[in-house]
Amino acid sequence: MSDFQHGSIPHGSIPHGTSQQSDLHGLHPESRIVHPPVEEPVGSRPLGVPLHQGHVFAFPDSDALAHAFTGPDHGFLYNRYGNPTVRSLERAVADLEGGSGALATASGMSAINTVLLALLRSGDHVIAQRSLYGGTFAMLADLADRWGVEVTHVGGDDPDEVRAALRPTTRLLHLETVSNPTTRVTDLPALIGAAREAGVLSVVDNTFTTPLLCRPIEHGADVVIHSATKYLGGHSDVLAGVAVFADPDLHRRVWHYANELGAAADPFAAWLALRGMQTLGLRMRRHCESALDLAGRLAAHPAVTAVHHPGLPSHPDHELARRLLPDGQGGVLAFDLAGGREAARTFVGAVRLASLAPSLGGVHTLVLHPASTSHRQLSDEELSAAGISPGTVRVAVGIEHPEDLWSDLSQALAKL
Ligand code: PLP
Questions:
Q1: Which distant-in-sequence residues (6+ apart) come within 8 Å of 367 by Cβ?
Q2: Which regions of 169-252 does DSSP assign to beta strands (E)?
Q3: Is residue 202 in a domain?
Q4: For this structure, is 257 an active site residue?
Q5: Same domain, 319 and 186
Q6: Quick check: is 133 catalytic?
């Protein structure tokens, strides 16, 4: 113990690698095992991103530690403020989206909550799209009910509707690139442009399209949100979110609030998301091609009255999709069954290769009956206002062979 007391280990700078063990030599086993060697490769480099699961970082002096508290790029101190593996995910997504930086969070909802709560105060006004993910819609309703934030909902195609909704207190426009489940495409350049003219920030949830198909910052967005749980992670085995910022000051503001909220992503979740992202290009191409292929075949089926996929020329936003999403129009489609609610419920129970499950963006194909699950709170009139019929089925197309998928969908259609 005397070596330690006399300072053979410089305070706060425990050396890495095997040298640490020799410096600990002479200490009790209970002390040595608390400080195992930290191996770092010498003469080679890891191809995979290292997983830094440990969540406390030691500093040489208090000034260095104090500095790390003050900004997202000032070093790592404690995982709630940042972590090297999580930072790799943040940098990877920021790079793909063309942002200045990003904040990874525990879920997509956590990213949305953190951004909204960091940027709004009571009395502020938000303009939000009508057809939002249910969790986001509920969050905005809660902000209105309990926190005095006012919300106006608009469609996704008319910038004049945004202009007409603007108030002196409007702080934020909240959009989604593609709506769920009817795959309407939002005219991002036009709507964001209308907000920008008034100095209002735009937040775009880009989960459905990923930065490989659409980069909202190129269209003027200030913040881009992802549920990394979906396509970025890609294997339905991780829950995570990311918020990407065009402007570093906005990033810093939201980062400070995220630390108060405790929104941080877990390093292992970030590691899984990063590992999944390495195949994002291959997966997205397959998701998009298979979804368009299945959409075309479904459109020709006698049991189907309408198919919703922006890659189909019959889709109301097809022209916009060709401009905004030239590299692929996404892996989600929906279709309406002539037999209505009962037919849709029979269909989702009859698939064999696909699974009846929520979520999307993973390698497995998933089907869902929105009217009885994700949108069950809506009356038939409200469903119809959202473009959803009682017989609508959503398909989140996975990466299985498209012929096998079509065999599965057609055998389920034959059961109706
Ligand atoms: N945004 C969109 C468009 C979603 O579809 C979802 C989840 O389905 C979320 C956000 C929420 O993401 P998470 O489940 O990771 O919290």
A1: 347, 348, 351, 354, 355, 356, 357, 393, 394, 395, 396
A2: 170-176, 201-205, 223-227, 241-245
A3: yes
A4: no
A5: no
A6: yes
Whether residue 119 lies inside any domain: the answer is yes
**CA-CA distance, 187 to 135, in Å (whole number)?**
22
**Do both 302 and 392 map to the same domain?**
yes
Cα(277) to ligand 1 centroid in Å equals: 17
C-alpha 59 to ligand 1 mean position (Å): 37
Asked if residue 59 is part of any domain, the answer here is no
Pocket of ligand 1 contains residue 107 by CB under 6 Å: yes
Q: Residues, the chain, total?
A: 416
Distance CA(218)–CA(222), nearest Å, equals 10
Which range of residues forms the domain containing residue 383? 280-414
Helix 108-119, helix 134-147: angle, nearest 10: 30
> Are both 121 and 242 inside the same structural domain?
yes
135 Cβ below 6 A of ligand 1? yes
With beta carbons less than 8 A apart as the criterion, state whether 161 and 175 touch: no
CATH number of the structural domain spanning residue 149:
3.40.640.10
Q: Is 205 in the pocket of ligand 1 (CB under 6 A)?
A: yes
Residue entry with tokens 């909240």: 174
Domains of the chain: total: 3
Residue 282: CB partners within 8 Å, gap ≥ 6?
none
Print pLDDT tens along the chain (416 aa).
Answer: 333 333 333 333 444 443 455 688 899 999 999 998 888 899 999 999 999 998 899 999 999 999 999 999 999 999 999 999 999 999 999 999 999 999 999 999 999 999 999 999 999 999 999 989 999 999 999 999 999 999 999 999 999 999 999 999 999 999 999 999 999 999 999 999 999 999 999 999 999 999 999 999 999 999 999 999 999 999 999 999 999 999 999 999 999 999 999 999 999 999 999 999 999 999 999 999 999 999 999 999 999 999 999 999 999 999 999 999 999 999 999 999 999 999 999 999 999 999 999 999 999 999 999 999 988 888 888 888 888 999 999 999 999 999 999 999 999 999 99
